[in-house]
Amino acid sequence: MPLALLALAIGAFGIGTTEFVMVGLLPQIATDYGVSIPTAGLLVTGYALGVVVGAPLMTVLGTRISRKRMLMLLMGLFTAGNLLSALAPTFGLMLAGRILASLAHGAFLGIGSVVAADLVAPQKKAGAIAMMFTGLTVANVVGVPLGTLIGQSLGWRTTFFLVAALGLVGLAGIARLVPELPRPQGVRLRHEIAAFRNVQVLLAMAMTVLGFGGVFAAVTYLAPMMTHAAGFADGSVTWLLVLFGLGMVGGNLLGGRYADRRLMPMLYTTLGGLALVLALFTVTAHNKVAAAVTITLIGALGFATVPPLQKRVLDHASGAPTLASAVNIGAFNLGNALAAWLGGLVIAGGLGYTAPNWVGAAMAGSALVIALVSSALERRGSAPNRQDHAAVENPRQQPALR
What we know:
The chain crosses the membrane at residues 38-61, 73-93, 99-121, 128-150, 156-178, 199-224, 236-254, 266-283, 289-309, 330-352, 358-377. This is MFS transporter. Keywords: Cell membrane, Membrane, Transmembrane, Transmembrane helix. It is found in: Cell membrane. The protein is an all-alpha fold. The chain folds into 2 domains: 1-178, Growth Hormone, Chain: A (Up-down Bundle), CATH 1.20.1250; 195-380, Growth Hormone, Chain: A (Up-down Bundle), CATH 1.20.1250.20. The chain is built from 17 helices and no strands. Helix 5 runs antiparallel to helix 6, helix 6 (91-118) crosses helix 16 (321-348) and helix 16 packs antiparallel against helix 17 (355-393). The longest helix has 39 residues, at 355-393. Residues 386-393 and 395-402 have low confidence and may be disordered.
């Protein structure tokens, strides 16, 4: 694999750390600013919404410059946002810093996916995308627990200073290692937007929202679920998240490896398995060992869908993939927000802390149905092409002209 993928993975590591470390530091930040926990939760919500908006916005703004230069600008924006968060004297400025950093998130991973795929041979594209996303998954195993520990020991501002430093390392790595790939000729904003007329691109994004959302329907409420249903101590939740992160790393690499060989069968397997495991989690959540195993499986199956879904979008938007790729990253976060909202509704409705698992199972199952529909439409669309090809190969079989 090219060394340039390492630079992209470092950037993804910083992005993954700053996105999820807030969960562990939220009480401390709320106390320092004198706001309630729900108010401090806006730092999480604001970041997610910033990703959804920033993915297409920043990609559109960067259509006239090279992808390498845009990646460098996005890392600079990410670094500036985290510095503002670290230095913010008021909660409002802290929120502004979070939103500023989030604007770089979707566009960086989206453009980075295109660049990663361009760096390798066609049969290795999904593996290259997975290698970049490894930085994001490893962040949940190393960056988030370490950032939480540092923040609790040395103050949460120290964590954001360190994340900003990671941004600078990623920026330097991109400048040094990522080649100046030629900008596709004739590609303009209208071509990028035209990719969304392809029904397969839209179906892949729907799978992203529902499939990945199914993961976060359960994970968003993991802490109260594990302490109330399984009987874990509050301090054990951090290690459960590490197990989830380890599952993410393994699933991401597995998804990248097999998506290059059999993309749709890989999606059928992972989405179907995810729906089944989430449904079983309503039962296994009441046993410590079974719950720990299930959490690892959810991370693995959930992130095994990421490389194939991202590659499917790139394949079907091949003429102008940059905007579609970035919007699909926003779709992951849209799924997170939707799942968290729906999970909160069923808890508020008195159905218990394990009820969000049913929401997740339904979302993943719906994504599987969409995958089957997408594949059927693809086969139907290719059938005339095969018939035309057969007619050319066997002209004797063509009906005579009268």
